[in-house]
């Protein structure tokens, strides 16, 4: 994609249309200004502040770039134009106090920067002297410091507490101490913020280039206790001798390894399989969520039920967490529903949580036959590839007693199973039953019922084990399954 195609040229068209519709009375504000000053050439999100009614400006942008327009229900008087290329333009009315007052009411000084639209003819570049800076944002940008615009910045909108953590997750930011205190004072107000807004910020934090830094900042400003109490509860929960960290520390290390494996999986498996996995990280799971985002949530929540399931055997001096996978599936679902995460993503994260132990269970079952491989893949659907990688990250983050031996066994099993998981995904799942339900009911002489599902599944399993399965063999397998029910 050349620099003169979307999104760069499309953004230039949008800005020119907005300037023509509101000459001298509209500004580009916030994150796009910050990002260009930091060296991001073509930001995809443009925020425009308009003196007066923003509707004509939004309509002009919509017409100019041929993209739909809709009102923003959570921001009074605002509009959003979203292009298929990913470019998003928000058009908002200025605060009643004008541009200066508008900038001073924003969250962080580095986001309180504005450039008049008539200075953006060479977008994505502009003269630094054109930047309107009322809060010291340019200085803080140079020092990579996140500082609140004023004493009421966090209290005005408690969601800004989470935006601080999200900004840190973007990489290389230092938190101003006074801002941390302001955020902590505002954090209790998050209880009144809509779940989908909270979920969007947590998603952004985990999707950043430095999610661990973002989570550390979230904890520092009081956001974890306020919006993810289940995650906060992981800290201080001690584990067995096979772990070197408590549950909270282990969880963060699993997330760190999950992020590393996005680009370094080839250190453990065949490079071609690692490349296949990397190519699919941006595939959509549901509701615009990517595989990458879903896996990071899975890493954060994979042991979420350990505090509730912890058992200490005083006689043996041992610690266990029986059933934390099944309990975690339920708890992860409740948490993600609270955050209004798309249903397909909820199910995918629940699958990761439920099945993250299955690969480890197979370490001592080797050599694996095709029956064991089928059962593993079937149970781990629809995340059979992703849970295999997550299980490796989980093992890499478990470095207590006999860790190196266990890691090598786990990595070896990952190398064995990942090709099967990829082939399974490419084939669209389990092989089809050779004989359909109508044929089975006629041949077996029984009406449909629960037996039929068992008979069809038995065929799929048998066909995976033996791709050359004949119709006669398939019928014998189906009869056996029906009789055994």
The proportion of strand residues reads 5-15%
Biggest sheet overview = 7 strands, mixed
Alpha plus pi helix count: 25
Strands, count: 13
- Read across the widest sheet, the strand sequence of neighbours is 3-4-5-2-1-6-7
Alpha-beta content class = alpha+beta
Domain count: the total is 4
User: What's the overall average pLDDT, rounded?
Assistant: 94
Please tell me what the overall shape is.
Answer: globular
**What is the CA-CA span between the terminal residues?**
58 Å
Low-confidence residue ranges:
1-5
Radius of gyration equals 27 Å
Helix content: 40-55%
From the structure above, extract its key features:
alpha+beta; 7-stranded mixed β-sheet; two-stranded parallel ribbon; single chain; Hydrophobic Seed Protein; 4 domains; 485 residues; Beta Polymerase, domain 2
Overview of the structural elements:
The protein is α+β, with helices and mostly antiparallel strands and 485 residues long. The model is unreliable at 1-5 (pLDDT under 50). It folds into 4 domains: 1-136, Beta Polymerase, domain 2 (2-Layer Sandwich), CATH 3.30.460; 144-227, Orthogonal Bundle (Hydrophobic Seed Protein); 235-427, no CATH class; 437-483, no CATH class. The protein has 25 helices and 13 strands. A hairpin with a 5-residue loop joins strand 4 (78-82) and strand 5. The protein has helices at 8-21, 31-38, 55-65, 98-104, 137-142, 153-156, 159-169, 177-186, 195-207, 211-220, 223-227, 229-232, 247-264, 271-279, 291-301, 306-309, 324-338, 343-355, 358-362, 370-380, 384-396, 403-427, 437-444, 450-465, 471-483, and strands at 26-29, 45-50, 69-72, 78-82, 88-93, 113-116, 132-133, 145-146, 174-175, 284-286, 289-290, 311-313, 318-320. Helix 7 packs antiparallel against helix 10 and helix 13 (247-264) crosses helix 21. A 7-stranded mixed β-sheet has the order 3-4-5-2-1-6-7, with helices on both faces.
């Amino acid at each position: 994609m050349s620099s003169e195609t979307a999104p760069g040229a499309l953004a230039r068209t949008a800005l020119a249309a907005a300037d023509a519709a509101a000459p001298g009375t509209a500004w580009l504000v916030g994150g796009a200004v910050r990002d260009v000053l930091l060296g991001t050439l073509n930001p995809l999100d443009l925020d425009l502040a308009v003196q007066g009614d923003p509707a004509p400006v939004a309509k002009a942008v919509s017409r100019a770039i041929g993209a739909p327009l809709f009102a923003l229900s959570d921001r009074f008087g605002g509009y959003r134009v979203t292009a298929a290329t990913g470019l998003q333009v928000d058009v908002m009315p200025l605060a009643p106090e004008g541009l200066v007052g508008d900038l001073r009411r924003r969250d962080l000084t580095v986001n309180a920067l504005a450039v008049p639209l008539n200075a953006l003819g060479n977008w994505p570049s502009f003269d630094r002297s054109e930047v309107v800076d009322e809060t010291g944002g340019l200085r803080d940008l140079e020092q990579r410091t996140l500082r609140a615009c004023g004493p009421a910045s966090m209290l005005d909108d408690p969601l800004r507490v989470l935006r601080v953590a999200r900004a840190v997750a973007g990489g290389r930011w230092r938190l101003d101490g006074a801002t941390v205190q302001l955020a902590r004072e505002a954090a209790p107000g998050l209880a009144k913020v809509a779940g989908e807004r909270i979920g969007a910020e947590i998603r952004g934090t985990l999707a950043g280039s430095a999610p661990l830094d973002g989570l550390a900042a979230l904890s520092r400003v009081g956001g974890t206790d306020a919006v993810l109490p289940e995650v906060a509860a992981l800290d201080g929960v001690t584990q067995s001798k096979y772990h070197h960290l408590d549950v909270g520390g282990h969880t963060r290390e699993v997330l760190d390894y999950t992020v590393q494996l996005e680009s370094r999986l080839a250190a453990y498996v065949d490079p071609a399989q690692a490349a296949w996995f990397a190519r699919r990280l941006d595939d959509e799971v549901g509701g615009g969520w990517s595989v990458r985002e879903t896996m990071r949530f899975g890493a954060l929540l994979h042991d979420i039920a350990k505090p509730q399931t912890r058992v200490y055997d005083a006689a043996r001096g041992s610690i266990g967490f029986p059933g934390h996978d099944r309990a975690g599936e339920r708890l992860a679902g409740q948490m993600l529903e609270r955050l209004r995460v798309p249903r397909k993503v909820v199910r995918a994260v629940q699958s990761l949580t439920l099945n993250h132990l299955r690969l480890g269970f197979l370490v001592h079952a080797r050599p694996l036959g095709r029956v064991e491989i089928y059962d593993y893949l079937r149970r781990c659907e629809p995340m059979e590839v992703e849970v295999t990688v997550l299980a490796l990250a989980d093992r890499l983050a478990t470095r207590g007693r006999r860790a190196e031996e266990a890691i090598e066994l786990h990595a070896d099993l990952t190398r064995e199973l990942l090709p099967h998981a990829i082939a399974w995904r490419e084939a669209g799942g389990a092989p089809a039953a050779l004989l359909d339900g109508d044929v089975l009911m006629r041949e077996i002489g029984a009406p449909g019922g629960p037996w039929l599902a068992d008979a069809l599944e038995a065929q799929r399993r048998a066909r995976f084990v033996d791709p050359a399965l004949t119709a006669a063999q398939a019928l014998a397998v189906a009869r056996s399954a029906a009789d055994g029910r």
